[in-house]
Design brief:
Layout: H1 2-9, H2 13-29, H3 31-41, H4 43-63, H5 67-81, H6 84-95, H7 101-126, H8 132-153, H9 167-175, H10 178-210, H11 214-242, H12 245-265, H13 271-285, H14 288-295, H15 304-333, H16 348-368
Helix pairs in contact: 2-5, 2-15, 3-4, 3-15, 4-5, 4-8, 6-7, 6-15, 7-8, 7-11, 7-14, 10-11, 10-12, 10-13, 10-14, 10-15, 10-16, 11-12, 11-13, 12-13, 12-14, 12-16, 15-16
Length: 381
């Protein structure tokens, strides 16, 4: 919906990046509060509240005629979505054995990417005939269905609620945990391909590079979601089966850095090879789950939600800032060309210079893999 939103609100790439990143900012900021609340109040209460916030935010975004109203809707969506992944990690750690943990989290990521893949294709198919507002209105019914599922099937209590330690001491412990920053930096580098390319600028990049229809560009970008779905399942299963998460984290990060560089800078002229590259990158992005699973081994089970929220805050807040900066760079390198509908047209060179920010961050992710500890931590409750 990039072009449609820019046209509806009369905004440029920087403003669109800001609009998009608002939900990521609010999502990231709420990670730590959401984790603390889940550890103390249980999963069901927070999950039902979160889905309600998502529904409210989407409804507000649909009804918006002014940019600030749309921005408020995006903020509510981010707040609502903040507990989803944390709840999943909490459930996998409390109700299932450790050797299944990575695969179960990977299974959840696979389900999420199926939703992203389906949503992108649905929007691309209908955007030519109906407005983006009506599309989101119909998609909102899936949120209502999720609310009903959560109401009837999530247990009314959590098996462990964490009430003993002070908030300050817990946050200080996580802040100064070396492993927290190592795996957060790695996860950020892996996550950026999804947040910046697949979720925001990938479709426009492909359209400008190959001069293809929006539907075809959407299908190509969707391959990254399919790859992530497969990668999150296969990589997590192999890591659990071989009991060697570090191997898959390390070499997936290396390979992702290499293939992302090819995607941005290599002048591939064959659309099939370019599409296959999206699939490979998505597959490697599935390794981000292993970082979350690994950090969970360093903390007591009753603080899993807080730990997951803390790490996700680092990753998502940084990812939102970088995604927004890519939009700023596009406007900085823009040469004044316009599309027929009056929106700004960005050249391939503009995209390459702007997206290179991803590779710069990934350099730090690669370096961080050298500091991973091979020893399995011994937890103290």
């Amino acid at each position: 919906m990039v072009d449609d939103l820019m046209h509806s609100f009369k905004i440029d790439a920087s403003e669109l990046a800001h609009l998009s990143s608002l939900s990521m900012y609010s999502y990231a900021i709420m990670q730590i509060p959401a984790g603390l609340l889940i550890d103390r109040l249980g999963i069901r209460t927070i999950q039902l509240f979160s889905i309600s916030m998502c529904l409210s935010g989407t409804s507000l975004f649909i009804a918006s005629h002014q940019l600030w109203v749309a921005e408020l809707g995006r903020v509510l969506i981010g707040i609502g979505g903040s507990s989803a992944f944390i709840c999943i990690n909490k459930i996998s750690c409390e109700y299932f054995p450790p050797l299944r943990r990575s695969f179960l989290i990977g299974l959840a990521l696979a389900a999420g990417t199926v939703g992203a893949y389906s949503g992108s294709n649905i929007i691309a198919f209908f955007i030519k005939t109906i407005s983006w507002q009506k599309i989101l209105f119909y998609l909102n019914f899936f949120g209502i269905f999720s609310f009903l599922l959560s109401w009837f099937f999530i247990p009314s209590r959590s098996s462990q609620k964490y009430k003993n330690s002070s908030l300050f001491s817990e946050l200080m412990r996580l802040t100064f945990m070396k492993e927290m920053w190592i795996y957060s930096i790695i996860a950020l580098g892996v996550y950026l391909c999804m947040s910046v390319i697949a979720d925001l600028w990938g479709i426009s990049f492909i359209i400008n590079r190959f001069n293809v229809e929006k539907q075809l560009a959407t299908n190509i970008v969707s391959l990254m979601y399919i790859g992530t779905c497969l990668g999150s399942l296969i990589l997590s299963f192999l890591a659990d089966y071989l009991q060697n998460k570090l191997f898959f984290i390390k070499y997936s990060t290396y390979a992702l850095f290499f293939f992302t560089g090819i995607l941005i800078f290599c002048p591939l002229t064959h659309l099939f090879l370019f599409s296959f590259l999206f699939l490979i990158i998505g597959f490697l992005c599935g390794s981000t789950i292993l970082c979350y699973s690994r950090i969970s081994e360093y903390v007591p089970q009753k603080t899993i939600a807080t730990t997951t929220g803390f790490m996700n805050c680092i990753v998502m807040l940084s990812g939102a800032w970088i995604a927004e900066k890519v939009g700023h760079l596009l406007d900085f390198f823009w040469k004044g060309a316009l599309n027929p509908n009056g929106t700004r047209w960005y050249s391939i060179e503009n995209y390459q210079k702007s997206l290179s920010l991803i590779l710069i961050v990934m350099v730090f992710s690669v370096i961080s893999t050298f500091f991973m500890n091979q020893d399995r931590p011994v937890l103290k409750e």
